[in-house]
Amino acid sequence: MSNANEKRQAGEAAIRYVEDGAIVGVGTGSTVAFFIDALADLKQRIQGAVSSSEQSTAQLKKLGIPVLDLNATGPLTLYVDGADECDPYKRLIKGGGAALTREKIVAAASEKFVCIIDSSKRVELLGKFPVPIEVIPMARSLIGREIVKRGGHPVWRDGVVTDNGNWIIDVHGWQIVDPAALESELNQLPGIVTVGLFARRPADVVLIGDQLMG
Ligand code: 5RP
Active site at which residues (predicted)? Predict the structure, then answer.
């Protein structure tokens, strides 16, 4: 079961990675919401944030933190985001909040990815949490069939439209032994925008509550 206290501790602990004058990449979700709250206390010391979702953008703006365009900022030094699962190699499943595409973009643009989770997210093998995949709407059935061929059980997250106007398929039933290989394979399928496996670019640092994962 997820633990709100650990999420808050992780969000606050991530503040120690924020350097003066930084532009901070900001993820999405309830754990990140604690990070954004804490970031507001030092908003005078940073230039602003690059946001991974409309949800985080709204919170950042409400707290008076400037939201900047990634095309204008160039590379970022720091990205802070949550996860749905994290394995011992800091490989992740993300996208429970449907923000995976922009999250993967901001993570790719950042030198250091600090992942903030509660202990319920820590697993030995990725796949108990269904893997979110963002798809172009017309490709939903095609991708569903491709997933079945690969032993997964696809479930359309009916009613959810991503910030990019696309749909989400959640894949149940995968026990993912080689997440980077699966991520690469799925990335090749026409119609998939983003796979919620963050294995080719895993986190650099994982905070479970306020504890650093080894
Ligand atoms: C959103 C995500 C989130 O990081 C993930 O779902 C974890 O969320 P929370 O911190 O609310 O448990 O990937 O797309």
Answer: 103 (proton acceptor)
pLDDT at 68 over 80: yes
Pairing type for strands 131-135 and 85-86 reads unpaired
Q: For 104-125, how does the pLDDT look when each residue is reduced to its tens digit (9 = 90+)?
A: 999 999 999 999 999 999 999 9
Taking the C-alpha atoms of residue 4 and residue 118, their distance in angstroms, rounded to an integer, is: 8
pTM: 0.97
Ligand 1 mutation pick, 28, 102, 160, max ligand atoms within 8 A of CB: 28
In the set 6, 12, 85, 103, the catalytic residue is 103
By C-alpha distance, which of 195, 28, 25 is closest to 107?
A: 25
Q: Which amino acid is at 73?
A: T
What would the pLDDT profile of 130-144 be if each residue is shown by its tens digit?
Answer: 999 999 999 999 999
Distance (Å, rounded) from C-alpha 180 to C-alpha 159? Answer: 29
Q: Which domains does the chain possess?
A: 3-123+201-212 (3.40.50.1360), 131-196 (3.30.70.260)
